[in-house]
Amino acid sequence: MKTNKLIICAFLAFFGLTISSCSNDDNPQPTTDNTITGIASRTSDLSILVQALTKADLATTLQGTGPFTVFAPTNTAFTNFLTANGYANLDAVPVAALKEILLNHVISGSKQSSQLQNNSYIKTLAKGTASSSNTLSMYVNTTSGVRLNGVSSVITTSPGATFDIIASNGVVHKVDAVIGLPTIITHAVANPAFSTLVTVVTSTATNGNGFGDQTAVASALANATTKTVFAPTNAAFTAATTGSGFAVGATPAQVSKVLQYHVTTAGNVLAGSLTNGQIVPTITNPVQNLTIDLTSGAKISDTSTTKANIIVTDVQCSNGVIHAVDKVLQPTL
User: Fold this and answer.
1) In what order do the strands lie in the sheet with 68-73?
2) Is the pTM of this model over 0.85?
3) Residue 124 above 90 pLDDT?
């Protein structure tokens, strides 16, 4: 009898376990989507971003393996962007343009805010139109917080919140402004090392800074024509405009010629395509050429005996590319 009771108890225990297992199979517990898209979908002030990602067919992409780093504009940032660009709502933004703008907020790899280096360029996933192989650059300034392209900052939106929202496939940083596709002017303004160049290029006849009216050069840099710019640093301008520098006392017309001598409309000339002895025409009138010298590092020969070193390469913009040089290039004035 005792044996029969043990058998019955064992049977009931097994039967109960079976029912419990079946019950669990029939009602599986939902899993939380901790991907970038999943987190954004649960974050109230990123709801317009989620709508934009869905419209641009990128929501699924940011649920993928990655890893990605996403600089996520808040609802306020998107609202300001739509208003500033004359869009009545998100639906009014062309899908192709919206997709490029969104990709300009995404980089490959997982980068927490502490891993973003000051005075550095990172590559977004946006392609732009100037280059088929080089994606758009983003300038990072961490002097005070994290500032991107000089137009948008990484923020927290609640007390005690972290700048880094960790996802299963990367990291999300909320930002306070939509980051538009950067032009040559955008990148020149964003990087403090080019502040003198910006001052000279944006000079007008009425601001009295001695450089004259350079709006024609500014317009040439801002238009959609694909161009390559060799951008002198602040230190380069100081050397050229003080002491025995060649540009001391230059007239506004000569300043304009100097600026033009740093620009070529030969296309989006990337560093990897430069060749030793290559002749690069500039937009001076008449045309004056530069010569590339790769015999000992990347250098540029102008009309003087001193060569300029190319110290930063391939800063990709929507209308061309920038290479930084450590010397103001000297044309025939």
Assistant:
1) 106-108, 68-73, 170-175, 165-167
2) yes
3) yes
Q: Residue 105 burial (CB < 10 Å; 0-12/13-18/19+)?
A: buried
What HEC string does the chain produce? CHHHHHHHHHHHHHHHHHHHHHHHHHCCCCCCCCCHHHHHHCCHHHHHHHHHHHHCCCCCHHHCCCCEEEEEECHHHHHHHHHHCCCCCHHHCCHHHHHHHHHCCEEECCCCHHHCCCCEEEEECCCCCCCCCCCCEEEEECCCCCEECCCEEECCCCCCCCCCEEECCEEEEEECCCCCCCCHHHHHHHCHHHHHHHHHHCCCCCCCCCCCCCHHHHHHHHCCCCEEEEEECHHHHHHHHCCCCCCCCCCHHHHHHHHHCCEECCCCCCHHHCCCCCEEECCCCCCCEEEEECECECEEECCCCCCEEEEEEEEEECCEEEEEECCCCCCCC
| Residue of 163, 165, 147 lying closest to 155 (CA atoms) | 163
pLDDT per residue as tens digits for the range 221-254: 999 999 999 999 999 999 999 999 999 999 999 9
pLDDT exceeds cutoff 90 at 2 = no
Cα separation, 255 vs 214, whole angstroms: 8
